């Protein structure tokens, strides 16, 4: 469906055209008209399907139509789980609102609170925030949310996973009850449904894909490999397959730093992004990756939320996630906007159970194989080792390939 038929203003259609878009995605086609009618929405869509524009565009139109020329105050509040996602949302607000006289601001932890206070004091129409930093401002009395007419909860499932429910509850209780609320989530779990019952008014349900599913344009595969040879295999794949850019997921922050350092030693320009990095370091790492200054970006799950990179061809699960939902979110960084993408998992022996659970949840047979020269070491069956009869064991020592 063309954007022209969704009821958007001329200024917004102009901004959409500036970005080279003509046809709306499924989530945009369904969510935009409903949001423009003032309905509360619970929407679910695959990552990379234009979800951010699906709530940004109607939000901008509503605020622009109500501009009264008086002192600016916060009319729309967007809550997002991470700094990166908040920055991405505000970037979309600026992009699509470029022909409107509106001001937006992103407030997140890791950045100085003083400049944020000064910008809010000068007047803001749209505030994008992480729950923790917004609570800081509320406790300081440096933010006024009494005029909020639109609340958007982006990636609500992730915010709950990160323990933000108490903060969200406190924030929402300060907002006018007559507001419009739009909730976007990858899943409609029991906690999400509870959130909707507490904070929403008869929301319309919008689903554009099966839950826990990944885009059909993502080619999923796996290689079985010993855990102590994963880094060698990754270096081999990047080099022999000539991967241009790759986003690699590790389970821990320390693992991300270590892998980035090892890949650098292998001659692959790399950098890491995780929660212990300062906001400046995280912004720099993401900028380097987007500008092709580095070839591999090593990330943890939390830090990677909101990473939006056009034409990212490869995502690698270096460590398998414990939660199948995290797998779906990870691989959703590729295959965005209808482009093809590849998601490769490196699965060691002790991760086979997690891999089986992921395949069961995504309801898809993910083919697995080995790479010549990196085959997993065959482990002998457990049992009594041969001895000399006096309790001193001999032989039976395992030899490991290096």
UniProtKB/TrEMBL annotation:
One of its GO terms (biological process) is ribosome assembly. Residues 366-402 are annotated as: Disordered. One of its GO terms (cellular component) is cytosol. Residues 376-385 have a biased composition (Low complexity). Pfam families: DEAD, Helicase_C. Keywords: ATP-binding, Cytoplasm, Helicase, Hydrolase, Nucleotide-binding. Residues 1-29 form the DEAD-box RNA helicase Q domain. Residues 232-382 form the Helicase C-terminal domain. Residues 32-206 form the Helicase ATP-binding domain. One of its GO terms (molecular function) is hydrolase activity. It catalyses: ATP + H2O = ADP + phosphate + H(+). It comes from the Bacteria. This is DEAD-box ATP-dependent RNA helicase RhpA. It comes from Halospina denitrificans. The lineage of its organism: Bacteria, Pseudomonadati, Pseudomonadota, Gammaproteobacteria, Halospina.
């Amino acid at each position: 469906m063309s954007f022209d038929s969704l009821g958007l203003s001329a200024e917004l259609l102009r901004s959409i055209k500036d970005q080279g878009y003509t046809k709306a995605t499924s989530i945009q086609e369904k969510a935009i008209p409903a949001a423009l009618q003032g309905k509360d929405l619970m929407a679910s869509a695959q990552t990379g399907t234009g979800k951010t524009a699906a709530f940004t565009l109607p939000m901008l139109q509503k605020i622009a139509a109500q501009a009264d020329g008086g002192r600016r105050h916060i009319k729309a509040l967007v809550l997002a789980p991470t700094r990166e996602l908040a920055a991405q949302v505000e970037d979309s607000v600026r992009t699509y609102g470029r022909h409107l006289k509106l001001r937006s601001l992103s407030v997140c932890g890791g950045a100085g609170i003083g400049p944020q206070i000064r910008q809010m004091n000068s007047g803001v129409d749209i505030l994008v925030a992480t729950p923790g930093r917004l609570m800081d401002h509320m406790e300081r009395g440096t933010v006024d949310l009494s005029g909020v007419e639109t609340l958007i909860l982006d990636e609500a499932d992730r915010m709950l996973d990160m323990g933000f429910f108490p903060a969200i509850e406190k924030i929402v209780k300060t907002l006018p009850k007559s507001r419009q609320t739009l909730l976007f989530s990858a899943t409609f779990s029991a906690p999400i449904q509870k959130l909707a019952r507490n904070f929403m008014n008869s929301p319309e349900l919008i689903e554009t894909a099966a839950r826990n599913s990944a885009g059909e344009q993502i080619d999923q595969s796996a290689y079985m490999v010993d855990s102590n040879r994963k880094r060698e295999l990754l270096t081999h794949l990047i080099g022999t397959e000539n991967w241009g850019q790759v986003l690699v997921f590790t389970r821990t922050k320390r693992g991300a730093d270590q892998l980035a350092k090892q890949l650098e030693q292998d001659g692959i320009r790399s950098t890491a992004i995780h929660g212990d990095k300062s906001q400046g370091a995280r912004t720099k790492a993401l900028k380097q990756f987007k500008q092709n200054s580095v070839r591999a970006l090593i990330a943890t799950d939390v830090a990677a939320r909101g990473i939006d990179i056009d034409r990212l061809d490869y995502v690698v699960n270096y460590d398998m996630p414990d939660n199948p939902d995290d797998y779906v979110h990870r691989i959703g960084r590729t295959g965005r906007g209808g482009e093809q993408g590849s998601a490769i998992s490196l699965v060691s022996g002790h991760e086979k159970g997690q891999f089986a659970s992921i395949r069961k949840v995504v309801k898809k047979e993910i083919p697995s194989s080995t790479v010549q020269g990196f085959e997993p070491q065959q482990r002998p069956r457990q049992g009594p080792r041969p001895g000399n009869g006096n309790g001193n064991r001999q032989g039976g020592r395992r030899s490991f390939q290096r």
